[in-house]
Description:
Strand order of the largest sheet: 1-4-5-6-7-8-9-10
Largest sheet: 8 strands, parallel, barrel
CATH architecture: Alpha-Beta Barrel
CATH topology: TIM Barrel
Strand content: 15-25%
Number of helices: 12
Shape: globular
CATH superfamily: Aldolase class I
Oligomer: single chain
Helix content: 40-55%
Order of helices and strands: HHHEEEHEHEHEHEHEHEHEHH
Radius of gyration: 17 Å
Amino acid sequence: MNGFLDRAFAEAERRVKQWRREDLLRRLLDAPAPRRPNHGFATSLREARPFALIAEIKRASPSQGTLRGIVNVPKQAQLYFDAGATAVSVLTESRWFGGSLDDLVVARHATSGLLLRKDFIVDEYDIEVSAAIGADAVLLIAARLSLPRLRELLSFAADSGLEALVEAHDDADAAVACESGATVIGINSRNLHTLEVDLNAGLRLLRRLSPNRVRVLESGIHSSRDVRQAAQAGANAVLVGEILMRSHDSAATIRSLLSEVGPPGTQARVGRSGV
C-alpha cells in the first residue's frame, strides 16, 4: 500500500474514533439536514443529457496545494448546478483537502441537487454521518477495501439510503469494484503511489468496464476534448475539481467542458472485458 493512502486512512480512522467519543452522530441527528429528494445518483448520471458532470468543491489537494483559499460553498454548489452539473462532490477531508462536514451541510441547505461526500470512508459510522449531514452518495476506495468489506459497506450504505461511487485506480481495483456489485464505478487517472495523473491510463481502464456499470472518469479533465475522449471511451460522467476551483468563471468552464460532447447514442459503449 502506498504511503499517502496509508496516512489518509490512518487519519480517517483517528477522526472517526474521535467522533464516536464525542457522540457526533447523536448531535447531528438532533439537528438533521434537510430531507434529500430521492432522485437517484446512479440513474441521474446515466440519464443526464448530453452528458453528466460531477463538479467538485475542494480548497486544496495533496498534489497541487491550495486551489482556492476562501470558498463560499453554498454559492459555489448552486452555481455548479445552474451551469449544468448533474451532481456536486464535496471534499470533507480537512488535513489535505481543507474541507469539513460543515461544507456538505451548508451545501445541502443551499440546494436540493445531488451531493457526493468525497472523503476516506472507513466504516459504517462514517456512512451514518454522511446520511445525517445530507449526502446522497459516498465515495468508497477499492484500493483500501477487501472484497467482503466493500460489499458490507455498499450494503450498509444502501440500507442508510445512500448510493456509492466505488473508486478504482488499476485493474485489480476495478476487478474488486465489479465483483462487489457496485453500480457506479469511478476510474481515477491518478497514480496512488506518485500522485501523478495519466489520463490515457484512465481511459484504457475505463474501456474495459461493461456498459451495465455507470462509469465515471476522475482526474485529469482539463478541456472539452478530454470530456469527449471520456465519452468515447464509454464514460457516463466525468468528475472535475481542480480546473473549476482555479477558474474565475466556473459556470463558463462547465459549459465549455460539455460543449463538444455529442448527443446521446454517439458515444462508444465498450467493455470488452465484461467487468
